[in-house]
Structures are given as structure tokens and as C-alpha cells.
Amino acid sequence: MAWNGALPNIRAWPDAAGIGSIALTILAGYLVFPDDLALLARILATSLLVVSLDLLVGFCGIITLGQAALFGAGAYAAGIAAVRGLSEPFSLLAIGAAAGGLTGLVSGAIILRAHGLAQLVLSIAFAQLLAETANKASWLTGGSDGLSGIAPAPLFGEFRFDLLGRTGYLFSAAVLIAVLAVLRAIAGSPFGLLCRGIRADPVRVRAMGVSVYPALLKMYIISGIVAGVGGALSAITTQVVGLDSVGFDLSASALVMLVLGGAGSLYGALLGTVTFMLFQHFVSAENPFHWLTLVGVLLIAVVLIAPRGLAGAARTIASRLVARWHPQASR
Amino acid sequence: MRTVLSIGVDAIAYGMVLFVITIGLSLTMGLMRIVNLAHGAFAMVGGYVASYATRSLGLDYAAAIAIAVAATVVIAAPIERLLYRPIYGAKDALPQVLMTIGITFCVVGIANFVFGPTLKTIPLPPSLSQPVDLGFRSIAGHRLFVIAAGSAIALGLWLLIERTEFGIKLRAAVDDTAMAAALGVRTQTIYTLSFALAVALAAFGGVIGAEMLPVEPYYALRYMVTFLVVVSVGGAGSIWGALCACLLLGAIDTSARYLVPDLGEFFFYFAVLAIVCFFPRGLFGRAP
């Protein structure tokens, strides 16, 4: 066990490059669009939700239309804590992560009992139940008015979360990058590979002597933590939490963003989120129904033409180009 | 006693609307093994066409229903051929979910582009809008009509599936598509016909249920979850399962709305969670 060989290092190299280029892109966003940092910060928080969904859909093959439950649990937990007087940003993140992880444990324990249609319906029902609770418990959550009055303390006691959203954006960026680094490590670990194995063929994995349910539940908890951190980030940066953060629309949009970008690599989730939310920002403002039609056409096109999303399509094109110029290098 | 009766009538009527809309979904899910989230979109198309026919063309209710059903089937036919066929029987449910969500989005976007994003009302004929006197109590005529229509459809479908040659072929295809095809059943034709039937029922349900499920711009998305949940509780492919599930969930939802309005849909989804958790194949679903 002590000797790990050189393999992890080789595996780590493209990850360092990937995460480095993401960090550069985020920094470029900060320098090029200093007036739209609020929108960009929202994209970063949503990225965490979509990445957490990728852990379930892309790695484990679990289909859920209730991922917003985990995100919303984190957002509401952090928001409620902030309104009740705890305002230190890192503590709020920790509270969001804990709430997300706990919700992941409970919902995963229920949802993973079923398969196919029943699984989908359980995930929806759980999220709707949570949304209805948030709606009705207005003394705690603000109900349909949303939870406002969240005032996070300055970061490190120094940098205030101001109206321009500089602190919020850079804080979100740092959290996203840290989470991505951890998740790529988990994805490359034996546990991550086990999950991919379960996705490919659960019967065979079971025949190898592995219990599938606990492994999937563990991934569900991790996914809940990531989504909860995303929710807490959104509560901190936007300083409001509304019912839309637990709603069915957000769950469905997250799935759309994920498949648009391409499931199973974490990077595709980021690509999908950025593309979707930028388009949404510009087209949806014009006419919400044109926006719906456009998303619908995109989804149909993804299923028929590019089942592995934008990231998969880019990879295919890149490998074709490589094959053209270096025929020997291609497999 | 009065409250119990009026809750009862409303609950049964609501359950019957759910039944008429979702029975087609249940049959196609059982037959084609497809998770179809776009079913509500076809009910919505029916509602939009019926509203246009009565409001703008001045047709009467029965003609509007006929036109709505026919138009929806005509619209759905190319969608089935081009978009549904590639995803029938896929091993992984994800492409089906995505494709049918995509179709729903397109239908919502295009329908509101063509007809305008407003609430669509379908005026009832006088014979249905008046209360019917039952001797000891009067009941809204429309509720009785819906209950009668739902019962007639349940009976008709049962006869179709259990007593006709088409029904035999349909059941054979549900049980084992490959074997049915090997024995000479044209499964593709069966698929197309049952899809058309499902869409026609959805459109019919969308029109007659407009009093309880108002036809509005986001209809297909708002009730997508409800329809899917009902089918899952009933068990895909079973008429009696679907009927029981619709009446049960209709009763839970309606009585919760009357008795504890503060809790809203809480009871509905709690019941769904409990039922699906203990009966993952639905109340009357069979093992695959």
C-alpha cells in the first residue's frame, strides 16, 4: 500500500493543466467583464451544482431531477445561519456543506433504493417535498418572499462583499477551484473508478464482491456536500435565497447544462454551465419563449448528434485533427 | 356530510382527469419502455387548439374536442417518427429524459409564440355548466361529464386490450417485443398506433380537464411532474393500476387542499415518496 508508483503523477499532470486553464479563464473573466461580476459569480455557484450533478449522472449513472434539493439545502442553511447572526464566510460554507451532505445522505438513501422511472420520480418527489417545506415554513425561510437580510462578514475580516461583487467573485472562484481539485483527485482514486464501474455494469461489480449501494450512497453524500457548498456560495454572494433555489426548474436546468457540456469529466459540466447561463442571460431577456424553444432544440440536437456534449464533440474533432496530421499517433 | 360529498365528487373528477391524460402515458411507457416527459405537452396542444376553436372560430364544445384531438395526433405523428423512434427501448434512460424534456420545451415555446402567452379558457356548453339535480343534492354537470368520460375510457381501453386482436398483439409486444416480432406482429405499427392513441387521449384529457388543470403557458412543465408521478405510482402499463393511482392521488390531493390548505402539496408528495419507496414498480406494476 505504501508504494504508489509513478502512475498518480502521470494522472495528475493533465488535471493540473485543466484546473490551471480554468483558473486563467476565471481571472480573464474578472479582468474583461468587471461590470458583470454578479452574473459571473452566479455562474460559478451554479457550476458547483452542475459539477455535483455530474458526480451522480456522469460517474454513477444515477438519473436525478431533484439535484436542486441539495443546492437549496445548502443555500437555506447558510442563509438562515447568516440571518441568525453567524456571518463568517468560511463557517457559512461549512454549514452549507454539512446541510448539503446530510440532505444527500437522506435523499440518497431513499432514491438509491429504486431504478429507472421510480428513481427519477423519487428524486423529483423528494425535491418537491423540500421545496414545499421551504415554502410553508415561512417563519424560518421567508416563504415565497425569499430569505433576505443575509450580510456576510468581510472575508478574513478584511475584504467586504460589496455591490460590485469583486470579493464575491474571487471568493467563489477560489472555492470552485479548490473543490474541482479535490473532486478530480476523487475521480481518479480507486473509489472514483469503482463508481464508473458501477455505472458501466452494476451486476458485474456486484459479482466482484463489492457492495454497490454503500458506494453510491457515499458518492451521493459527496455530491450533496459539493452542491451544498454551491448553495452557500450563492447565498453569500447574492445575499438572498429564494424558492427557485430548490425548485424543479433549477434541477431540470442543471441537467440540461450538464448534458450540454458533456457528463463524466467535470470539465464538461463547467463548459455547459457557462454556455447555458450566458445564452440564458442574453436570449431569455429578449423573449423567454424563444429561449425555451432554443434550449429544447439544443437538447434534441445533443441527443441525436452529440451524445457526449460540447466537451465530447470538441474532443472528437480534436482527435480527428490529430489523426489527420499525425496518422501514426492516433490509435 | 355535505363537505364530504363535495370533496368526494371533486376528488373523483380530478382523479378521472388525471386518468384520461395519463393512461396513454402509462401504456406507452409499459409498451415502449420510454420515460416520456413530453406527454403533458400533447395535452397542452389539445387545450390550446380547443381554446382557439371555441374562442376564435366560434365552434361548439364537441366540435372543439374533435378538432383538438385530431390536430394533436397530426402534430404528434412526425414527432413520433423523427424523434421518438431513435430512443425507443434505449438501455439508458438519460437520452429519453433529455429528448422528451427538449420536446416539451419546444412545444411550450412554439405554442406560446403562435397563440400568445395567456391563460386559455375553453367555454363550456350550457348543458355542462349547469348543476345537475340528483334528487338529494346537485352536482356540477361538468364534474359528472368528466367522471362519465373517464369511466367510459377505462372500460373502452379494457375491452380494446383484452378483447380485440389489436389488444392481443399489443400485449404480446409489451411482454416480449422481439418474440412478438418473430411471430409476425408488426411491432413498429403497434408502436405508432398506440402512440397515436396515447396522444389522442392526452389531448382529450387536456380539453375536458381544463376546468381543473387550467391551460396556461407553462402547462406542460407545471404538470409534467404530476403526470409522471401518477404513472409511476400506478405502475407503467396497467389500466387498473393507473385508475387506482389516479383516484388515490386525486383523493389525497383534493382532500388535503380542502382540509389542510396550509400544507399545500406536502401530503401529495409525501404519499408519492412513501408509495414509490415501498412499491418501486408501482401499485400494480409487474416485474420486468
Q: How would you describe the overall organization of this protein?
A:
The complex is a heterodimer of chains A (331) and B (288). Chain A contains 14 helices and no strands. With 331 residues, chain A is an all-alpha fold. In chain A, helix 2 (37-60) crosses helix 12, helix 3 packs antiparallel against helix 4 (89-111) and helix 8 (190-200) packs across helix 10 (212-238). In chain A, 75% of the residues lie in helices and 0% in strands. Chain A has one domain. Mean pLDDT of chain A is 83; it is low at 1-10. The two termini of chain A are 33 Å apart. With 288 residues, chain B is mainly alpha-helical. Chain B has a single domain, classed as ABC transporter involved in vitamin B12 uptake, BtuC (Orthogonal Bundle), CATH 1.10.3470. Chain B contains 13 helices and two strands, in the order H-H-H-H-H-E-E-H-H-H-H-H-H-H-H. Chain B has helices spanning 2-32, 39-55, 61-84, 94-115, 126-129, 141-163, 165-175, 177-182, 187-208, 219-222, 224-234, 239-259, 266-278, and strands at 131-133, 138-140. In chain B, strands 1-2 form a two-stranded antiparallel ribbon. The relative contact order of chain B is 0.19. The mean pLDDT of chain B is 85. Chains A and B meet through helix 5, helix 11 and helix 13 of A and helix 4, helix 11 and helix 13 of B.
